[in-house]
Amino acid sequence: MECNSNSGIGTELKLNVGMDPIDGIHLADIDFEVKIFSHKRTGSVTIGKDAAKKIDEDNYIVCVDTKLIGTGRYYMTFTAYIPDMDFPDGLRTEVVTVPVRGANISE
């Protein structure tokens, strides 16, 4: 995840959420959510697939208002619910947290 922002509170970020296909399954085929937060843990925003804009089968865009999160270095936790019949509920949960490169929000 990358943006080019060393901006202040009130900046609206537009972030790409992407995934390489897993066993032929594309991001468009699964349910997911992303949580964007600051290293200061002052706030967070969670956005589900239904609120993201589809770009193609493997990429979605999410938009975030930094006023809801606060200052600091930003991170994104991506949670994917992947169909897998080896699990009792038929879903395998994958969770990955990555820095949002370039997003360092100040006052």
In short:
This protein has 107 residues and is mainly beta. The protein is built from no helices and eight strands.
Distance between the termini: 22 Å
Rounded average pLDDT: 87
Low-confidence stretches: none
Structural class: mainly beta
The share of residues in helices is under 10%
CA radius of gyration is 15 Å
**Cross-sheet strand order for the largest sheet:** 1-8-7-3-4
Give the number of DSSP strands: 8
Order of helices and strands: EEEEEEEE
Strand content: over 45%
Number of alpha- plus pi-helical segments: 0
Report the biggest beta sheet as strand number plus sense, adding barrel if it closes.
5 strands, mixed
Shape: elongated
Q: Indicate the multimeric state.
A: single chain
Structure description:
This protein has no helices and eight strands. The chain is mainly beta and 107 residues long. The strands form two sheets. The chain has a five-stranded mixed sheet, with no helix packed on it. A three-stranded antiparallel sheet has the order 2-6-5, with no helix packed on it. The radius of gyration is 15 Å and the shape is elongated.
